[in-house]
């Protein structure tokens, strides 16, 4: 007698479990067919009717799911049947009946975390957030080692603004299930929401590795790479994503911003323009496109676009971004009166709490005479901005006594400034609040031009007194010894017996998104080594000995006062657009600025005037001379021409 051939496996009878297994892998059609067969054989199978309700829910048919779950409950009122009924009712918008169903589930199966999760969903829909959170925490207590329970609570906490705790919970979820790709994805999304996109990169990388053909996974990974400054890799990943789904505006936007950061402005304009075409009334995309237009020198188009966005029905933040970017276009053109007013939009964009500390609780000053009551001025953003705008204490003193709060790195330097040194301005000490010494209002240094109603740059004058080994007087001898007509000097010095002392700074803060275009590889400075009779002093913080392609004295540790003393002994400073340019300009030291194409508004045409001998002169710093890129592009190429021009200018200076 021959046994039937079974391939070593006994034939399985169709079951509800098989149907649910098919549903779990997305095969709802086969699951429904199997369940219909089961119900034809036994119409009293409550589990089969419940499974059919699950199939209906998965297909988006909540109405059928309610009817099917109700039939299952009529046959046998199981707790998990009520869970499905609660979800289906909620999906139909029937929150109170859904709550009743969830309550039955909780009462009959209190140890089933799914019942508490259903109740949480209903309570959240009813805006009972505390109760919803408690229900999710109960579900987690019932399954403390379940990765998904941690993620469910984390997602809820993120939705209710408790992002920090949500991140901690998702971290624990990953520790519980390190191979769970969905946990890595949610953790990365939460880190992004918390403003920690750089930390999200390895988690988005895990997701992209698991789903290398998924455009969304690639887009998220590319955005995270962009945040870390890995621009070339970010571009490659985002291009892969855009190739798979070319009509995704977020991907095209991130790709455009990466191209912009790399200096590929034409490609950036194409990508950002394509993103805006895909979503034409998106204010954020419009502002990004306007930004690249401004960088390309197409300021009229950028201005028109920013003004349009201001009138769109969008968020206050988006309008503020448009208005702030409009301000930089206006300021670059020298349209200062309107520009300063638009510049105030930055206040809406700054992180909350940036003004706290010395000035906490004080109202903003409107620029009106206070009748002798003190006003507290504070440094708002970077050190360079503080040094540029501190000149505005002079006109502000005409309207109120002033207190001044500055970062620690600038405190000793600011103490040497004439208004502070002579007691006309009081420098607030660490831990000292402005209110405690009588201040009635406060104002950012950057807001002073707008509050005072000024329509031109306040003129530069020598503000800082630097002590030397002999005593306390203006350290300006080296400036006089190296002055010539390019800096407004009147007479040529005698042939120099010592090498020309040149300070070098080639990089700014790497945390700035577009720092790659502003800063340079120190190898770009190699042509300067060919100039005879020059000794170089590094003004670059954190410089390694091998950074420069030629010898230079390393910058010693210290604050801005110590750097100022060092600069005072130099003949000329060569720098990119960073705090060193402002510090040298503030001291009246000859400063040659290596300026990127489409550079900052303060070095644009609107800030250039005419000197006493007809030469171009910065309205902010008369001793500053621009060496700007004539073209844009990636890598070191755009720096070749301005660096060669600096080398030639140094040769002429050495010969004088």
TrEMBL record:
Recorded coiled-coil stretches: 115-142
Gene3D superfamilies, A to Z: Glycogen Phosphorylase B, Tetratricopeptide repeat domain
Family annotation (InterPro entries): O-mannosyl-transferase_TMTC, TPR-like_helical_dom_sf, TPR_rpt
Pfam family, one: TPR_16
The entry's keywords: Coiled coil, Repeat, TPR repeat
Tagged with keyword Coiled coil: yes
Protein name: N-acetylglucosamine transferase
């Amino acid at each position: 007698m021959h046994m039937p051939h079974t391939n070593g496996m006994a034939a399985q009878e169709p079951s509800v479990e098989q149907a649910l297994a098919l549903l779990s892998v997305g095969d709802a059609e086969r699951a429904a067919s199997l369940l219909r067969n089961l119900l034809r054989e036994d119409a009293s199978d409550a589990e089969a009717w419940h499974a059919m309700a699950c199939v209906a829910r998965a297909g988006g048919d909540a109405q059928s799911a309610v009817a099917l779950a109700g039939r299952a409950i009529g046959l046998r009122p199981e707790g998990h049947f009520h869970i499905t009924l609660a979800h289906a009712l909620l999906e139909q918008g029937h929150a109170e009946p859904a709550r009743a169903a969830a309550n039955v589930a909780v009462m009959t199966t209190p140890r089933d975390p799914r019942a508490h999760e259903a109740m949480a969903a209903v309570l959240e829909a009813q805006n009972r957030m505390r109760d919803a959170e408690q229900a999710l925490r109960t579900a987690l207590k019932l399954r403390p080692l379940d990765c998904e329970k941690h993620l469910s609570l984390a997602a809820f906490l993120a939705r209710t603004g408790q992002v920090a705790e949500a991140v901690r919970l998702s971290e624990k979820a990953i520790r519980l299930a390190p191979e769970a790709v969905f946990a890595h994805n949610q953790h990365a999304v939460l880190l992004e929401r918390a403003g920690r996109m750089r930390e999200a990169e390895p988690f988005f990388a895990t997701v992209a590795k698991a789903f290398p053909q998924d455009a969304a996974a690639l887009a998220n990974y590319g955005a995270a790479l962009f945040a870390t400054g890995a621009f070339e890799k970010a571009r490659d990943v985002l291009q892969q994503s855009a190739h798979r789904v070319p009509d995704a505006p977020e991907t095209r936007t991130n790709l455009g911003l990466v191209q912009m950061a790399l200096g590929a402005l034409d490609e950036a304009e194409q990508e950002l323009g394509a993103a805006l075409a895909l979503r034409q009334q998106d204010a954020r995309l419009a502002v990004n496109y306007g930004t690249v237009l401004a960088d390309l020198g197409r300021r009229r188009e950028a201005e028109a676009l920013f003004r349009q966005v201001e009138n769109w029905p969008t968020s206050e933040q988006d309008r503020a971004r448009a208005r702030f970017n409009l301000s930089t276009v206006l300021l670059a053109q020298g349209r200062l009166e309107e520009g300063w007013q638009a510049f105030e939009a930055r206040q809406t964009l700054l992180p909350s709490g940036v003004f706290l500390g010395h000035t906490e609780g004080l109202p903003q000053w409107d620029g009106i005479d206070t009748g002798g009551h003190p006003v507290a001025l504070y440094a708002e953003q970077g050190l360079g901005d503080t040094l540029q705008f501190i000149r505005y204490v002079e006109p502000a003193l005409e309207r109120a006594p002033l207190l001044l709060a500055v970062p620690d790195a600038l405190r000793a330097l600011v103490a040497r400034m004439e208004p502070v040194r002579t007691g006309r301005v009081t420098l607030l000490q660490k831990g000292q609040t402005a209110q405690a010494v009588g201040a009635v209002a406060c104002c950012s240094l950057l807001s002073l031009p707008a509050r005072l109603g000024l329509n031109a740059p306040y003129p530069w004058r020598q503000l800082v007194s630097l002590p030397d080994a002999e005593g306390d007087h203006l350290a300006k001898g080296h400036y006089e010894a190296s002055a010539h007509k390019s800096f407004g000097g009147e007479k040529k010095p005698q042939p120099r017996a010592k090498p020309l002392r040149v300070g070098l700074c080639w990089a700014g803060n790497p945390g700035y998104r577009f720092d790659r275009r502003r800063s340079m590889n120190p190898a770009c400075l190699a042509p300067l080594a060919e100039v005879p009779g020059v000794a170089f002093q590094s003004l670059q913080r954190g410089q390694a000995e091998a950074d420069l392609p030629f010898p230079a004295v390393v910058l010693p540790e210290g604050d801005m006062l110590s750097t100022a003393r060092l600069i005072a002994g130099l003949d000329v400073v060569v720098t990119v657009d960073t705090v060193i340019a402002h510090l040298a300009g503030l001291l009246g030291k000859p400063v040659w600025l290596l300026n990127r194409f489409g550079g900052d508004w303060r070095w644009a045409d609107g800030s250039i005037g005419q000197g006493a001998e007809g030469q171009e002169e910065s309205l902010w710093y008369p001793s500053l001379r621009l060496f700007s890129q004539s073209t844009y592009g990636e890598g070191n190429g755009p720096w070749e021409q301005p660096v060669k021009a600096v080398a030639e200018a140094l040769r002429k200076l050495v010969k004088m």
